[in-house]
Amino acid sequence: MMTSNLDKSDRSDGDRAKARAYVREFIPAMLAYCVVIVVVLTFGDLDGSSPWRFVWAVLPVLPLIGVAVAVIRHVRRLDDYQQRLNLQAFGVGFAVAMGAAITVGLLQSAGLSTRAGGWIIFGAGMAGWGVTAIVVARRG
Amino acid sequence: MKNSLRSLREAKGWTQGALADRLEVSRQTVNALETGKYDPSLPLAFRIARLFDRAIEEVFDPDG
Fold first, then answer.
1. Best interface-test mutation with A: which of B3, B10, B12, B28 has the largest number of A CBs within 10 A?
2. Subunit contact B27:A5, Cβ cutoff 8 A
3. How far is CA A89 from CA A48, A122, B49, in A?
4. Is residue B8 in some structural domain?
5. Could you tell me if residue B58 is inside a domain?
6. Which of A22, A81, A127, B51 has the maximal Cβ count within 10 Å?
7. Which residue ranges does the record assign to the HTH cro/C1-type domain (chain B) (predicted)?
8. Going by C-beta distance under 8 Å and a sequence separation of 6 or more, which residues neighbour residue B23?
9. CA A40, CA B9: separation in Å to the nearest integer?
10. Per residue in A27-39, is it b (16+ CB within 10 Å) or e — as a string?
């Protein structure tokens, strides 16, 4: 087609700049999270009886705040249309997480014993977010 | 809502990415505008009209 050169799907300079800014903020926070997780699992004695183990257990939340800030700043840099697509993905992720939380809660009230309940909810929510983000990005 | 964004852009010889940079939006957004999947906000519609030196109703057809 005559206009194919003008319709190429390369990202714009602005898109690349936003992606670079996101990576610059997200990767260090994620690396910090990985380091803290390894340190906590190695030295935290989470299966022990010291009350300090609870402090160790929540330490990975600190770098996760950095991850959350990176995501929020990224979303704020997006234009209206991209924010709308992201809102759909966040909405589905939230709904899936809430559905998973209720399901796990009901199963636990019926006697199901699992220590992974929080991780199941987290995984379901992230999967809902991720899959929807891919679908709406392709559709958009 | 139909619009003439694609033909206006092509008349200038711009890629979607080049137009996106001029409008300070993503290439994905330009594509969504051109394919009618997204109706722009009023500020963005004004930016588009100004960029091509047209009135908004010359770029966007509310009856389309």
1. B28
2. no
3. 39, 15, 31
4. yes
5. no
6. A81
7. 5-59
8. B30, B44, B47, B48, B51
9. 55
10. eebeebbeebeee
Of A5, A12, A137, the CB nearest to B21: A12
Q: Is there a domain that residue B60 lies in?
A: no
Q: For residue range B3-61, what is the model confidence (pLDDT) as tens digits? A: 999 999 999 999 999 999 999 999 999 999 999 999 999 999 999 999 999 999 999 98
Q: Is A138 on the interface with B (CB under 8 A)?
A: no
Prediction pTM value = 0.83
Q: Is the pLDDT of residue A97 over 50?
A: yes
Angle at CA A133, nearest 5°, toward B24 and A14? 20
| Interface contact B26-A81, CB threshold 8 A | yes
CB contact under 8 A, B20 and A12: yes
Is position B57 within any domain?
no
| Chain A: residue whose CA lies nearest to B7 | A3
CA dist A51 and A68 (Å) reads: 28
Instruction: Say if residue A139's pLDDT is above 90.
Output: no
For residues B49 and B54, what is the distance between their CA atoms, to the nearest angstrom? 5
Whether A78 contacts chain B with CB within 8 A: yes
- Name the domain count of chain B: 1
Q: Determine the distance in angstroms separating the CA of B58 from the nearest CA of chain A, rounded to an integer.
A: 22
CATH number of the domain bearing residue B14: 1.10.260.40
